Amino acid sequence: MPAAFLVTLDGQIHDAARPFFYVDDLTVLRGDGVFETALVRGGRVLKFDRHLARLADSARRLGLPEVQARQWEAAAAVATAAWGADEEGVLRLVLTRGRESVAVEEREPTALLYLSPVPEATLRRREAGVGAITLERGIAADIGARAPWLLLGAKTLSYAMNMAALRHAAERGAQDVIFLDTTGRVLEGPTSTVVVTSGRTLRTPPPDDGILDGTTMRALYRHAAERGYDCRIEPLAGGDLRASDGVWLVSSVALATRVHTLDGEPLRRPEGALDLRPLVDAALA
Ligand SMILES: *Cc1c(COP(=O)(O)O)cnc(C)c1O
């Protein structure tokens, strides 16, 4: 398995075992930055254009300098060439506000690509699915448009809350979380998009409703719609989860993970219920 490394936008490869950030980088001190997580498979970054578009959008929402797609593409080409085509890898794109001690007008963002192996636990999740719990997110789904400073549509490096929710789940014997809004509507997982299936219908909450616009969900929807599946973007109530044929968490590296148990109760799995895993694999091929 290749060892982890990072690539800077000048195309230089750096050993990931050596320190990299300045202590006064505003992402170190304040979590002030944005990121993307993409899957490398067969020596290429899957749906890289979608990740770059969302990185650019996240950067805009935080008032960071404009993302220069060509620089990131060139650096990603260096990274994937060094990684090879044999193993899957996790590619993180990281963009921070830069150093606090540098005057604002001279401040440069810190930008890097970090490539590392897919964790064993993630590979297991793809196969075995997860138990999940529902947790309150403490916001109303429609707050995103009224309160852009909450950065709900941006993939920011302030993920301590998301990680705390996962620890909260682990204490309850579950491996993942589905956030609900203050009215009981389904939002998303801490690192994934919720998709439920009923027959040949797929449903997911509207991406502008206080959640992140998932690139895996988008790729899946495009592929499935072309094959005659009814792909709907509409509000979901917490109760819709248990009534469906299947609850899935989709994201770039874990791909499609089935939720087999929700809040301690096994979910029903009718005969012939749709398996989203081959659909997501085909959508990404
Ligand atoms: C990254 C992420 C997702 C999944 O997005 P993909 O583009 O499919 O990987 C969903 N929700 C949150 C909060 C995330 O951070």
UniProtKB/TrEMBL annotation:
Q: Which GO cellular component term is one of those annotated? A: cytosol
Top-level lineage group: Bacteria
InterPro entries in the record: Aminotrans_IV (IPR001544), Aminotransferase-like (IPR036038), BCAT-like_C (IPR043132), BCAT-like_N (IPR043131), Class-IV_PLP-Dep_Aminotrnsfr (IPR050571)
Alphabetical GO biological process terms: carboxylic acid biosynthetic process
Pfam families registered for this protein in UniProt:
Aminotran_4
For this chain, one GO molecular function annotation is: catalytic activity
According to its UniProt record, which protein family does this protein belong to? Belongs to the class-IV pyridoxal-phosphate-dependent aminotransferase family.
Which PANTHER family does this chain map to? AMINO-ACID AMINOTRANSFERASE, AMINODEOXYCHORISMATE LYASE
Q: What is this protein called?
A: 4-amino-4-deoxychorismate lyase
Q: Which organism is it from?
A: Segniliparus rugosus (strain ATCC BAA-974 / DSM 45345 / CCUG 50838 / CIP 108380 / JCM 13579 / CDC 945)
